[in-house]
Amino acid sequence: EEAGVQRDRVVPAEEWLQKWAAGKTGFHKERGHPYKYLDVLVNGRSGLRIFFPLCGKAVEMKWLADLGHRVVGAEISERALREFFSEQGLPYREEAVPGVPGARLLQSTCGNISLYCCSIYDLSSAIIGKFDGVWDRGALVAVNPCDRQRYASLMISLMEKNSSYLLVTVLYDPNKHKGPPFYVPEGEMRSLFG
């Protein structure tokens, strides 16, 4: 379970912004993930607060909001967030985020989807509250390997006692691909999230 060539790889924020600007978003799933994943996360509960780290324009945010949950996302690309609202046909309002210089909050006018445009590390439970569920599809595997511990600690700090954490990762030989997505061995997932 060697991290291979990936251990020291760092993808700067700028590179992610360029991917969005150029439309190189192979990681975005137009059709979303099978509903079975939603069931696992929601587990029959209603009115949950669900966090989407590094949300991009994930269509599942709309699905979950339509099911009566409140969705909060964090994403560095403003373009991705604007595309989400326009592609889903959702009107939204925009405001600054108190205490986070340069950050913007884009919120659906009915208030059930709140997307923060900033570095995820600028957020905390004091700003965005705590969550009953986390939808991590392609977030942990996009985080620079050197930031994983910081990322996991942040996620844990955002979780309510009985929250569910849906984590979708990718399996492949990390010596053959420099990432992202990065390979996260199962042992490391356990040590990060306990």
TrEMBL record:
Molecular functions (GO terms): thiopurine S-methyltransferase activity
List of residues binding S-adenosyl-L-methionine: 16-27, 54, 75, 119-120, 137
Gene3D superfamilies assigned to the protein according to its UniProt record, in alphabetical order: Vaccinia Virus protein VP39
EC number: 2.1.1.67
Domain of life, source organism: Eukaryota
Gene Ontology biological-process entries: methylation
InterPro entries listed in its UniProt record: SAM-dependent_MTases_sf (IPR029063), Thiopurine_S-MeTrfase (IPR025835), TPMT (IPR008854)
Any Gene Ontology CC annotation: cytoplasm
Reactions performed catalytically: S-adenosyl-L-methionine + a thiopurine = S-adenosyl-L-homocysteine + a thiopurine S-methylether
SUPFAM superfamilies recorded: S-adenosyl-L-methionine-dependent methyltransferases
Keyword presence, Transferase: yes
Assigned keywords, A-Z: Cytoplasm, Methyltransferase, S-adenosyl-L-methionine, Transferase
Cell compartments where the protein resides: Cytoplasm
Root EC class: transferase
A Pfam family it matches: TPMT
Assigned protein family: Belongs to the class I-like SAM-binding methyltransferase superfamily. TPMT family.
Name of the protein described by the UniProt record: thiopurine S-methyltransferase
